[in-house]
Design brief:
The strands form four sheets. An eight-stranded mixed beta sheet has the order 5-10-7-11-4-3-9-8, sandwiched between helices. Strands 12, 13, 14, 15, 16, 17 and 18 form a seven-stranded antiparallel beta sheet that branches. A two-stranded antiparallel sheet has the order 1-2. With about 400 residues, the protein is α+β, with helices and mostly antiparallel strands. About 30% of the residues lie in helices and about 25% in strands. Strand 3 and strand 4 form a beta hairpin. It folds into two domains: about 250 residues, Conserved hypothetical protein from pyrococcus furiosus pfu- 392566-001, ParB domain (Alpha-Beta Complex), CATH 3.90.1530; about 140 residues, Conserved hypothetical protein from pyrococcus furiosus pfu- 392566-001, domain 2 (2-Layer Sandwich), CATH 3.30.1760. Pfam families: DUF1015 (PF06245). InterPro entries: UCP033563. This is DUF1015 domain-containing protein. It comes from Marispirochaeta aestuarii.
Length: about 400
């Protein structure tokens, strides 16, 4: 059974919440982060993307970057912008986007449950990104951004979340991107913990590197000879957990810089072996089993000719997996999306339009997909398998800095 632990949140005073809360560290470039934080010394981007306060010549993994993160984090606490709760609690986090809402629980989950797969994964992690998160966590002695988890809805938890989100919130603001963020402190965290015992598993939706980093942080602390019984703060990590029926996944689409050795005409001819190729009115596939391709200022619909018949393999059934097997590897010659310099990824709202602009500007081609479902993600995780790289883009995004877990 899954567990959730109350914690003494480090949080902004209400009057600073909207200014301080930032997008996650990994959805913006240094240039974008610098622009978002410009003129706002309270932005938590100064903590999660601290290179924005250093010269461009400084490598983003230089010691100075992590030292700057600690300096900026300390300043927010010293100035009283960030304050720590007196008592450990759980929190309710509601997100609203385009009239749609999702309500989750913010708290700490156990590293041991990540390690023993009670918290299930669907992605490989990259050591370099893990290393970065471990250094950031150890330098701050804090988990600055939450891991997004999900679970199959239970009625007792649904009723408790509704009750807990009816009072006066700690924060309630609409960010510059139009997404509304509301957080309540739970009045009865013990009831939520008890109801959580009926949840058999949790699933990482977004934040695999943060979760893996937290696991390595605990191992590091133990290696230093620090005794532990599981109750210490470094034995858990910050999460926000939403029921699976409320999560919203957008496609993670792909840009390919060149056609390999093929001309556009040769590419279209090669596709006809496994796809029905017809003109498309835009970059948004309407159903599973079809992919849209942008090539030479035109959109094409690529429909798989043969259905996927192996129902025992939840990964091979994905459009993204079939795309790799039938198109990306044999036709375009890209065997490993994780290491190839010929492919980039663009996720979220407006992705097809951005990709078309890039193809028009730089050449190459782009592919867009029907979004993976949360149920597909959970089936892959239940099977102990991993999805193709960059398969899911969750929106709306949680904001960093509203709730911080120190250890």
């Amino acid at each position: 059974m899954a567990s959730i632990r109350p914690f003494k949140a480090l949080r902004p005073l209400p009057e600073y919440a909207a200014k301080l809360a930032s997008v996650p560290y990994d959805v913006v470039s240094t240039r974008e982060a610098r622009s978002l934080a410009e003129g706002n010394r309270y932005s938590f981007l100064h903590v999660v993307r601290p290179e924005i306060d250093l010269p461009d010549s400084v490598d983003i993994h230089d010691d100075a970057v992590y030292e700057k993160a600690a300096e900026n984090f300390s300043a927010l606490k010293t100035e009283g912008v960030l304050v720590q709760e007196n008592e450990a609690s759980l929190y309710i986090y509601r997100l609203e986007m385009d009239g749609r809402e999702q309500i989750g629980i913010a708290g700490c989950c156990l590293v041991d449950e990540y390690d023993n797969d009670t918290i299930k994964k669907h992605e490989f992690t990259r050591k370099a990104k893990e290393d970065d998160r471990v250094r950031h966590m150890l330098t701050l002695r804090a988990h600055a951004g939450p891991v997004l988890l999900t679970y199959r809805r239970t009625e007792p938890l649904a009723r408790l979340l509704e009750q807990e989100s009816s009072g006066t919130p700690l924060f309630d603001f609409t960010a510059v991107d139009g997404i509304r963020h509301t957080i309540w402190r739970c009045e009865n965290p013990a009831q939520i913990q008890e109801a959580f015992r009926e949840v058999p598993s949790l699933y990482i939706a977004d934040g695999h590197h943060r979760a893996a980093g937290a696991s390595r942080v605990k191992a590091h602390m133990l290696a230093q000879g620090i005794s532990a019984d599981g109750s210490e703060e470094f034995s858990s990590f910050l999460t926000v957990i939403f029921p699976s029926d409320q999560l919203n996944i957008f496609a993670y689409n792909k840009y390919v810089r060149d056609l390999g050795e093929k001309t556009p005409g040769e590419l279209l001819s090669a596709l006809k072996a496994d796809f029905l190729v017809t003109p498309a009115g835009g970059g948004y596939p309407e159903a599973r089993g079809e992919i849209h391709m942008y090539l030479e200022s035109s959109w094409y619909r690529l429909a798989f000719k043969n259905p996927q018949t192996d129902s025992t393999d939840p990964v091979s059934a994905l459009d993204l997996s079939r795309f790799e097997k039938l198109l990306l590897e044999p036709i375009l010659g890209i065997e490993d999306q994780r290491s190839s310099q010929r492919i980039d990824f663009e996720g979220g709202i407006g992705s097809p339009e951005k990709l078309a602009e890039r193809v028009d500007r730089e050449g190459g081609t782009a592919f867009t997909f029907y979004p993976v479902s949360v149920e597909e993600l959970m089936r892959v995780s239940d099977a102990g398998m991993v999805m193709p790289p960059k398969s899911t883009w969750f929106a709306p995004k949680l904001r960093s800095g509203l709730l911080v877990h120190e250890f």
